[in-house]
Amino acid sequence: MPDMDIKPAVWRPEQSVEDVFDTTYKEKEGPKPPVVIVWRNVVLMTLLHTAALYGLLLVPSASVLTLFWTFACFVVSALGITAGAHRLWSHRSYKGSLPLRIFLAFANSMAFQNDIYEWSRDHRVHHKYSETDADPHNAVRGFFFSHIGWLLVRKHPDVIEKGRKLEISDLKADKVVMFQRRYYKPSVLLMCFFLPMFVPWFLWGESLWVAYFVPTVLRYTLVLNSTWLVNSAAHMWGNRPYDSTINPRENRFVTFSAIGEGFHNYHHTFPFDYATSEYGWKLNLTTCFIDLMCFLRLASDPKRVSRDAVNARVQRTGDASHRSG
């Protein structure tokens, strides 16, 4: 695809580790607080994944239109996380118009991964205190914990303490964010469950059974796991061409499954780059979407890291695996 004349704002200063991580934070010595299992979440996640496996068995019986609808719902709900809660609201890496923010808020409700306010607050804590007890999904605690286990236990006290001290006045000032937070439960019922199930049943006669288990339950579970892979696999497996001193990695499988979020060593090194990668649209559907929104003048001011800053960081802290282009 040809480049569009978007003219992103270039973020020139080289991002330092101190800007992303709190290097003054020290984990408390002594015994760790006990792990408290939230059995309600364990039961719900077990039921959800069991239902998703059943939905996978129903895929051959779904119509072609239903499969296309399932894919469309997957992309829209994923964009609610990647382009919305992550790149727009957590990192403020570009500016979104009111219509775009409303669309992304509905898309975020379709993803059903906590409201924008809570998701963005926790993600900022994750970046500032990555791989410490204050990180909600600390990858040092293993793949299972960073993937799904962190949702099955009570938050570590440090996560709560540090989250309360973050500057999040911008989220509180955003009327779309606070409106979605106020009406989050009904918006989830509408966007995550009712709409994906109702459309194929009403418009082309798909059975409600298939419409519930394939574009609703299976799609929802796939979006959850593709997002979780960014927290787990992309913090464990892959190369670190930009900063070998941090855990996040470049992971192509995660990039593909999470529509562009797997360039994770780059993202943690330069968190305010709207593309989360130096390669633009390459394997990055979310960047394509933001570029299209900028072209349509529904988004503006996409922040970018200069080539000089990237190359300087590669030479200073990279693991020698960097390849340009």
Q: Main attributes?
A:
single chain, 325 residues, mainly alpha, two-stranded parallel ribbon, two-stranded antiparallel ribbon, 4 strands, disordered N terminus
Helix-strand blueprint:
Blueprint: E1 9-11, H1 17-20, H2 39-58, H3 64-90, E2 95-96, H4 98-111, H5 116-128, H6 143-147, H7 157-165, H8 169-173, H9 175-182, H10 184-204, H11 208-231, H12 252-257, H13 264-269, H14 285-295, E3 299-300, E4 303-305, H15 307-317
Transmembrane segments: 38-59, 65-85, 183-203, 209-230
Subcellular location: Endoplasmic reticulum membrane
Membrane topology: Multi-pass membrane protein
> Roughly what is the average pLDDT, rounded to an integer?
92
Count of β-strands: 4
Structural class assignment = mainly alpha
Judging from the principal axes of the Cα atoms, what is the shape?
globular
